[in-house]
Specification:
Rossmann fold; NAD binding; six-stranded parallel sheet; alpha/beta
């Protein structure tokens, strides 16, 4: 199908390559054309604006940093809405606020455009290997239109509910990932304090009930003390901000989420915001 892609960063770039590999015709836009040169060489086409891109495709996919960025590329000057034809589907793979997602969906609906909030889990590795887990909020019919393209980037696609529901699921995901990172960090800390090599401990746990993707990937990062980013701490900070903001609006307490956010803030304050967010393990090891 004809797909437009906006947002060519650490996640977007491999997603475009997987769409091309699957045979989709992909048109891209970025603020700097030079950032897209390798994708153009791989077979993608270039559009001069989000509006121009929208006029050429059946599906627009966005993957940008925050709610304001999504609103800008979809609804702002020269945004997608200004070139969209009725029936266009916009699938946003960014992590934004559920309330923002609902607001964007309502604005696009006024122009005959369907919006899917499609945040993902799996990080850079999942984007490269086309094994992302996609959580979808929006109309089932719009999802079916977008499914061929989404399937080229993922191993699972789950419709959670109406607009905003995908973002709710992503917020829940970020809580679970953060809390599990803390648990694995304590596993490594305890093993070392006991004079035991954490590597075989991790290996043993991966064969039992404690096995998880976090233990597998981030556990190895911790053993190697190698926190080259798959998902930067500064981005996890933004996501945990969405979690806590949503909790405040609902009048509920999420103490573990607050603890995760506090550790990420400390990591960033000491200049390590560009590291993978699992680097909060270093703070766990330092705290007694």
């Amino acid at each position: 199908m004809k797909v437009g892609f906006i947002g060519l960063g650490i996640m977007g770039r491999p997603c475009v390559l997987n769409l091309l590999k699957a045979g989709h015709a992909v048109t891209v836009w970025a603020r700097r054309r030079e950032s897209a040169e390798d994708l153009l060489a791989a077979g993608a086409s270039w559009a001069d604006s989000p509006a121009a891109l929208a006029g050429e495709v059946e599906l627009v996919i966005t993957n940008v940093p925050n709610t304001g960025d999504v609103e800008n590329v979809l609804l702002g000057d020269n945004g997608v809405v200004h070139g969209a034809r009725p029936g266009l589907v916009c699938a946003d793979m960014s992590t934004i606020s559920p309330i923002g997602a609902r607001r964007i969906a309502e604005s696009l609906a006024e122009h005959g455009v369907d919006f899917l909030d499609c945040p993902v889990s799996g990080g850079e590795v999942g984007a490269i290997n086309a094994t992302l887990s996609i959580m979808v909020g929006g109309k089932a019919e719009a999802l079916e239109k977008a499914r061929p393209a989404l399937a080229a980037m993922s191993k699972s696609i789950t419709r959670i509910g109406d607009s905003g529901a995908g973002q709710v699921a992503k917020a829940c995901n970020q809580i679970a990932v953060g809390a599990t990172i803390l648990g694995v960090a304590e596993v490594v800390k305890l093993a070392r304090a006991c004079g035991v090599d954490p590597a075989p401990v991790r290996q043993a746990l991966m064969g039992g009930f404690a096995a998880s993707t976090v233990l597998d990937i981030h556990g190895q990062r911790m053993i190697d003390d190698n926190f080259a980013p798959g998902f930067k701490a500064v981005l996890h900070k933004k996501d945990m901000g969405i979690v806590l903001e949503t909790a405040r609006e609902l009048g509920i307490k999420l103490p573990e989420s607050a603890h995760i956010a506090e550790l990420i803030d400390r990591l960033i304050e000491r200049g390590d915001g560009e590291l993978d967010s699992s680097a909060i393990a270093r703070l766990v090891w330092e705290d007694n």
